[in-house]
Amino acid sequence: MTHLYDLLAAVADGVDPGPFALLRRDGVDHVDLFTGPVDVAERLADLPLPEGGPGPRTLALVPYRQIAERGFDCVDDGVPLEYLTVTGHATLPLADLLAALPTAPVVCADAAFDVDDDEYARVVDRVLAEEIGRGAGANFVIHRTLHGTVQGAPLSAALAALGRLLRDERGAYWTFLVHTGTRTLVGASPERHVSVDDGLVMMNPISGTFRHTGATAGRDALLRFLHDPKEVEELYMVLDEELKMMAGVAEHGGQVVGPYLKEMAHLAHTEYLLAGRGTRDVREVLRETMFAPTVTGSPMQNACRVIARHERTGRRYYSGVLALLGRDAEGRQTLDAPILIRTAEISPTGRLRVPVGATLVRHSTAAGEVAETHAKAAGVLAALGLGPQASTDGPYPPVRWADDPEVRAVLAARNAPLARFWLDQRGPGATVLPGAAGRRALVVDGEDTFTGMLAHQLRALGLTVDVRPWHAPGSAAGYDLLVVGPGPGDPGAVDDPKMAALRTLLTARLDAGLPTLAVCLGHQLLSGLLGLPLHRRAAPYQGLQREVSLFGVPRRVGFYSTFTARAGTDRIGSPYGPVELARDPADGSVHALRGASFAGVQFHPESVLSRDGLAVLAELLGQLLARPALTAGGGPVGG
C-alpha cells in the first residue's frame, strides 16, 4: 500500500495497512513515505543493500542490544533488529500530509515512570560517587522509561502524535513514524548520529540542555547557560568521544565545525558537527559507531558496563538508531542515521514506552538531572496528550537566538582553548616530525578509544602506527616506539588482569631500554613501576582542561583521570635511571615524567581539550626517537 490516502483510510477502518514509514528531515517541506516488507537481521552486516538505481533501499530499527556486536556489555532484552526493505517510495508535501493526518486528541492512561524521581535521584548520586568518583569514566547516561496505555486505536494515535510533532516541534533532525506491524515508533530526534554521502562521513554530537517554557527562550538566561562550565565541559566531552569514533571510520579522523545552537520547542542544545572522508561499507560505519556517547557515556566500553550495572533493564530501541541505507546516482552507498531519542514506542495492544536519559558528569546534581529527563521528554509527551504544548506566546516564527551576535560570539569563543589539530584543515606533511618518517609505533589500547585519536596524531607526525587491545597486544619487536595508552580503572588493583598485562608490557620494555610512551592509565602504571605512590583525587579530573608547567614550559592540556602519581621532588632515582618529573606545585601531582628511554603524561595530548597536545607529543617523540630506527627483527638499521 503506497498511496497515503489508501493507507490512512485503512487505519481509519481499523485495518493494519502493512509496514510503512513517514519521515521528515530537517529543513525540507516534504515527507518521505516508505513501504515494503519487514524482516529481522541478526547483525548489522546482514542488512541488505542491493545494487540498483539511486535512492533508499533499507530502513533499519537498530536496538541498543546490537552493542554486543562490538563485544560490549548490555542487558539483552531480545528486541530485534528489524528492517523495512523499501519497495515503495513517495514524496508528500508537508502541508498535504498535515491536512490528511488524524487530529483527534491522543488519550493515554496510567502513565508513570518505571523509576520515579526520588529513585532516579539516588541512581544519579550513586553513579557520581561510585563510577565517576572512582575512575570508571568521564560521563554516563542513565535512562528511565515512562510507561502507559494508549486509549483507542494505537496506530491512529501514533499518526495524530506525528501530526502534532510536525506542527509543534522545531529543530528536529528527523521527525518520523515507523510502523513494522510488531511495533510503532513515533518521535522527533534532534540528533544525527552518523551519515555517509559521497564518501563524507558526518557525526553530530549534541549536549548541554537549556530548559525553557516559553515559545522563545529568554536571552539572558540562555547566555548564562552558554557560560555554564558544566554545560560547556559536557559538550567538550562528547565531542572528544565522537572524535574517537571518527578516528575509526574516517581515514584522517574528523574535522570539527561549530559549535552551534539547536533550538527546539521546549529546550535548546549546543552541538558540533564532525566531518571526515571514509571508504568503509556503511554497515561497518554503523557498527563501529555504536552508539553515541550522548546517550551512553565515555569511555564507551566501560560506559556500557556502567549502564548495565545501574539500569539493570534492557533499553529496547532507546539510544539505538534509525538507519536509512541506500545508493546515490553513481551507485555509492549512502547512510543517514538519527539517534532514537525523544521517541515513543507503541505496541499493537496500545502499550506505551517513552524512554529518556540524562548525561551525568562530575558537576551534575541529582535534582538537575531529574529535571533534565522531564524536559527532554516534554515534546513527545505533549504530542501524546501527557503534557502541555510549548507556549505560543511571543512572536511567530519564534526569535532565533542562534542568529544573535552575542550568542554567536559566546559559542565561537568556546573554540579558543581547543586543539587546532582537530579544528583546522591540514595539508599533507604539514606536521611531520624530522626523523619520524619510516618509524613504527605500536599503541596498546586500555579500553579507551582515545587511542584512535592518538594514532592519528602520531601518523600526522610521520610515524606508521598499529593499534591493538591490551588483551592481545602481540609482539612489540620491530617497533621503534611502544605507547601504553589510556583506559578506565584503578591502577593500584594488583589482581586486575588489564593492569597486570599492561605492567608486564611496560616492565619488558623498560628492562630492554626501548622507547616507551605512557598516556594516562599507562602513565599511572609507569609511575608505579618507577616507585611513585598513586593517589585517588578528592575531585575527579574528568574532562578538565588546565594549564600546567611541563619541564619549564606552560602547556594547556586536557585531563580525564581520577588517579594521579605524586612526588615531593622534581627528580628521582629509579631502577631504570634518573627520572625528571613535571609536578603540580600545589600537591605534587605528577603531570609528566621522562627518563632516558621512556616518558609518561597524565593528561591526554590527543584530546580536543589539549590545545598544546601535538606540540607536547612532538617534543617527547623527538627525545624518545633520537636513536637509529629498528628493523623488522628488532635491531637497529645498519646494526
TrEMBL record:
It catalyses: chorismate + L-glutamine = anthranilate + pyruvate + L-glutamate + H(+). Residues 442-619 form the Glutamine amidotransferase domain. It comes from Micromonospora wenchangensis. InterPro entries: ADC_synthase, Anth_synth_I-like, Chorismate_C, Class_I_gatase-like, GATASE, TrpG/PapA_dom. Its EC number is 4.1.3.27. One of its GO terms (molecular function) is anthranilate synthase activity. The keyword Lyase applies. Keywords: Glutamine amidotransferase, Lyase. Residues 118-376 form the Chorismate-utilising enzyme C-terminal domain. It comes from the Bacteria. It holds the Pfam family GATase. This is anthranilate synthase. GO terms for biological process: L-tryptophan biosynthetic process. CDD domains: GATase1_Anthranilate_Synthase.
